[in-house]
From TrEMBL:
InterPro entries membership: Endo/exonu/phosph_ase_sf (IPR036691), Endo/exonuclease/phosphatase (IPR005135), TDP2-like (IPR051547)
All residue ranges annotated as the Endonuclease/exonuclease/phosphatase domain in the record: 59-263
Organism: Wohlfahrtiimonas larvae
Keyword NAD on entry: no
Cofactor entry: Mn(2+); Mg(2+)
Entry protein name: Endonuclease/exonuclease/phosphatase family protein
Pfam families documented for this protein: Exo_endo_phos
Keywords from the UniProt entry: DNA damage, DNA repair, Endonuclease, Hydrolase, Magnesium, Metal-binding, Nuclease
Source superkingdom: Bacteria
Recorded GO MF terms: endonuclease activity
Length: 282
């Protein structure tokens, strides 16, 4: 009975469907909640923009920085990137020091804490986002949440780029929880009229999960990316990590086989290019 009470307390603590609790690093401006858009918006619009003709983005499940070479790998990425999408980022002094030493900004969703340290998706960027929306969804069995973060950035051509960093629930037999979590991200992205990047660890170890994502990306006219040499991590022969884009041209798409995590990272070089009426997601 005592054990059951403890378990119920844990489940209650981690069962919230959405979360506003984030840690923000390197951004002096404050964010306020806009009731009209249900987003947190920056109080003073920053003057910096991302180069619309050259955007370098990495997406990587960093496995809580458990493995030896994770921080050198991340340091290398920050030396090349405009935006880095991390899943399973674990708050640490080393990580925060690295981000600030490269003069980057970061928003970290506090999905849960193991002791003192926060864990969740983290989006690192050269410039401060104009707005963000954070989300978490509890694993149906173990209850520890996975998280998502949508941020918008100013581009040099006046457009706003929406970037969604997503980590899907893993331990569920059916699709119900997976669909509910994914739908919260898509419902927000549907309100965005400009370019979109949706990336992360989708935990698509079942074919049915991947097929549902394919169906949903068609709703937003998102495109899946082909990789000349595809070294993305697989479980049971199925790829886990994906990036989907809209109104962007692929200049380069690479994957890397590394030992610094249990996932291999993805790197893209992109440029703004609006899709024509004949372009379709695939």
């Amino acid at each position: 009975m005592i054990f059951q009470d403890m378990l119920n307390k844990i489940r209650y603590k981690y069962s919230h469907f959405k979360v506003n609790h984030v840690n923000i690093y390197g951004i002096p401006q404050k964010y306020f909640f806009d009731k009209n858009t249900s987003q947190y918006c920056i109080s003073a619009t920053p003057h910096e923009t991302l180069n619309a003709s050259h955007i370098v983005l990495y997406s990587w499940n960093i496995y809580k920085q458990k493995l030896e070479n994770s921080m050198p790998e991340l340091s290398y990425m920050l030396g090349k990137a405009d935006i880095v999408l991390l899943q399973e980022a674990r708050e640490s002094e080393t990580l925060m020091t690295m981000i600030t030493s490269h003069e980057f900004k970061a928003i970290h969703v506090v999905a849960f804490k193991d002791g003192y340290y926060a864990n969740g998706v983290m989006t690192i960027s050269k410039i401060a986002p104009l707005s963000y929306t954070a989300q978490k969804y509890s694993e149906p069995w173990i209850r520890f949440p996975k998280s998502g973060l949508i941020s918008t950035y100013s581009l040099s051509n006046g457009q706003q780029l929406a970037v969604a960093n997503f980590h899907a629930v893993n331990f569920s037999l059916g699709l119900k929880d997976f669909i509910r979590q994914l739908r919260t991200i898509f419902d927000i992205l549907q309100k965005h009229s400009g370019p979109i990047i949706l990336g992360g660890d989708f935990n698509t170890w079942k074919k049915s999960r991947y097929l549902y994502i394919k169906r949903m990306i068609r709703e937003l006219n998102l495109k899946e990316i082909d990789y000349p040499i595809d070294q993305r991590t697989k479980v049971m022969g199925k790829i886990l990590d994906h990036i989907f884009i809209r109104d962007l041209k692929i200049k380069e798409a690479k994957t890397y086989n590394i030992s610094a995590s249990d996932h291999n990272p993805i790197r893209l070089k992109l440029a703004y290019e609006p899709q024509t009426s004949t372009d379709h997601a695939y």
